[in-house]
Design a protein that fits this description.
By secondary structure, this protein is of the alpha+beta class.
Length: 184
């Protein structure tokens, strides 16, 4: 694969799993190793300010509506996506499908994905992740931009993303609204 004059060697999932662990974070996007520095404090604080109310709201919704089609909320959970070559991604915050399969990693994309953009993210990688998540079963992908205080919301049923400046709300989470001002 050639990208802007550079050659990228694709990696198998087995090769990816054998990588020596280091201080950096890694993902596998369609066979391409994506290295990221460890998340900074501000980034993780935003993730926790999203995770905490989202987890509480999903728990309340599942209690009030036992047949709600929702799984569990996680920070940086690993998901093994189908496709050739494979992808192994770890979104900042995610909500699984109910009874989503997987032993070592969840198989397939989560129901909802929340990626908090940091200074090291590239448009190419973000677009690749959004496409991979949607192609492998995610219903919605939220890409949150802390510096400009907005999010782009991609959903499987819509041809175009929508820009959200007020809150996180979704038909998947009826009655739940998390204000962006409260997490950013």
């Amino acid at each position: 694969m050639t990208v802007m004059g550079t050659t990228t060697t694709l990696m198998s999932l087995a090769e990816f799993e054998r990588l020596a662990e280091g201080p950096d974070q890694v993902e596998l996007l369609k066979g391409e190793l994506v290295r990221m520095p460890p998340p900074q404090r501000d980034h993780m604080e935003i993730c926790h300010r999203l995770y905490d109310p989202l987890k509480a709201a999903v728990t309340r919704l599942k209690t009030a509506t036992p047949n709600a089609m929702l799984g569990n909320v996680y920070i940086e959970m690993g998901y093994l996506l189908s496709g050739d070559p494979r992808s192994w991604l770890r979104p900042d915050v995610s909500l699984t499908h109910p009874q989503q399969p997987g032993d070592r990693y969840y198989e397939g994309a989560p129901l909802m994905v929340f990626e908090v953009v940091s200074e090291n993210d590239t448009a190419r990688e973000l677009e690749g992740k959004v496409a991979a998540y949607l192609a492998d079963g995610a219903a919605e992908v939220w890409v949150i931009y802390p510096d400009t205080r907005h999010a782009w919301v991609y959903d499987r049923g819509s041809p175009a993303a929508r820009r959200e400046t007020r809150s996180i709300r979704s038909e998947l989470l009826p009655g739940i609204e998390i204000l962006l001002d409260e997490i950013l």
